[in-house]
Design goal:
The chain contains 5 helices and 5 strands, in the order βαβαβαβαβα. It is of the alpha/beta class. The chain has one domain: Rossmann fold (3-Layer(aba) Sandwich), CATH 3.40.50.2300.
């Protein structure tokens, strides 16, 4: 009888979950998105406005793959927040979301560097799929 040696293999390392920074001035939307995206397997940071988003992005830049950014917010609106984020990281990946574009057109938002726009209300599963695709680019 011969003994066989079974080589132990380490468990494959699970990739880190995609990181998303959610920026919306409405607390209920921010909380709903954070909870829903976490259930979908994302690591989520949430900011109530542009200045907080820039601060969080600077601190967590390596882990954040996509910024989900509301267009209309008090203080720094979405496009100006994106401009500030691009000053930190010209390759920042941003997806705008809005129910109201205000004075902006979709084409203008895309010209400013956004990877897309989702209109509120949206289907959370569709949003998660889109974010996952953007985060793995």
């Amino acid at each position: 009888m011969t003994a066989t040696h079974t080589e132990e293999r380490p468990d494959p390392v699970e990739p880190a979950p995609p990181g998303v920074l959610v920026v919306d001035d409405e607390p209920a939307i921010r909380q709903l998105l954070q909870m829903s995206l976490e259930v979908q397997g994302f690591q989520v940071w949430a900011a109530a406005g542009g200045a907080e988003a820039v601060e969080l992005y600077r601190a967590q830049r390596a882990a954040i793959g996509v910024v989900l950014l509301d267009v209309i917010m008090p203080g720094l609106d979405g496009p100006r927040t994106l401009q500030a984020l691009e000053a930190c990281d010209p390759e920042v990946c941003c997806l705008f979301m809005s129910g109201n574009l205000g004075d902006y057109s979709e084409q203008e938002l895309l010209r400013r560097g956004a990877r897309g726009l989702v209109r509120k209300p949206f289907v959370l599963e569709d949003l998660a799929t889109r974010l996952r695709r953007l985060a793995t680019r």
